[in-house]
């Protein structure tokens, strides 16, 4: 997993270090006003990669109400376009958690784990312009509320095929 902000002075240097499909994805997010994009799920061609663009209007929620998730075929690039703030939890998948719902064989490419008191998670803090790239070994829990109140967020998720990122 890595994260950053499209407005960071090192953004271009960060993109130069990434696999080309991820760099194209982040540049797309910087060059397009995703806060004004139509909500929904769309096919998105970035270079030679067939990606999936999800424009989601959500509410943040308390951590215990959210399920950990993971993907296998895609790198999940999550971007906070507006609203928030939000936190996201993350940790390395050791396959020790009980599966709650397995949709890996569907177009969604997602597996939800059940929450557990044994999870040792890290947290990142997201404000508009912040992105996080979750690889297949990164369990993550997005849209965690900050403070005592839920907040509306405009979340952009671009699913980048993992196989396109091999050099």
The largest β sheet comes out as: 6 strands, antiparallel
Mean pLDDT: 95
User: What is the end-to-end distance?
Assistant: 18 Å
For this structure, the CATH topology is Jelly Rolls
CATH architecture descriptor name: Sandwich
Low-confidence stretches: none
* Overall tally of structural domains: 1
Q: H/E series, N to C?
A: EHHEEEEEEEEEEE
* Neighbour order of strands in the largest sheet: 1-10-5-12-3-2
- CATH-wise, what's the superfamily? YhcH/YjgK/YiaL
Q: How many strand segments?
A: 12
| SS-based class | mainly beta
Coarse shape: globular
**SS field, number of helical segments:** 2
- CATH first level: Mainly Beta
Features:
6-stranded antiparallel beta sheet; globular; 11% helix; single chain; mainly beta; NanQ/TabA/YiaL_sf; 12 strands; 167 residues; NanQ/TabA/YiaL; 3-stranded antiparallel beta sheet; Jelly Rolls; DUF386 domain-containing protein
Can you characterise this structure?
By secondary structure, the protein is mostly beta strands. The chain has a single domain, classed as Jelly Rolls (Sandwich), CATH 2.60.120. 11% of the residues lie in helices and 47% in strands. The strands form three sheets. The protein has a six-stranded antiparallel β-sheet. Strands 4-8-7 form a three-stranded antiparallel β-sheet, with no helix packed on it. It has a three-stranded antiparallel β-sheet with strand order 9-6-11, with no helix packed on it. β7 and β8 form a beta hairpin. α1 packs antiparallel against α2. The chain is globular and about 40 Å long. The mean pLDDT is 95. It holds the Pfam family DUF386.
């Amino acid at each position: 997993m890595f994260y950053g902000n499209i407005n960071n002075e090192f953004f271009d240097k960060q993109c130069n270090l990434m696999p080309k499909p991820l760099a194209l994805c982040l540049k797309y997010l910087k060059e397009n006003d995703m806060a004004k994009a139509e909500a929904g799920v769309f096919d998105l061609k970035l270079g030679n990669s067939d990606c999936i663009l999800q424009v989601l209007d959500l509410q943040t929620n308390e951590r215990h109400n959210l399920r950990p998730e993971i993907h296998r075929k895609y790198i999940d690039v999550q971007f906070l376009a507006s609203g928030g703030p939000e936190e996201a939890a993350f940790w390395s998948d050791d396959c020790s958690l009980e599966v709650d719902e397995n949709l890996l064989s569907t177009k969604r490419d997602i597996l939800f784990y059940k929450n557990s008191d044994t999870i040792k998670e890290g947290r990142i803090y997201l404000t508009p312009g912040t992105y996080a790239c979750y690889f297949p070994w990164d369990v993550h829990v997005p849209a965690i509320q900050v403070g005592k109140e839920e907040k509306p967020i405009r979340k952009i998720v671009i699913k980048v095929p993992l196989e396109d990122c091999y050099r």
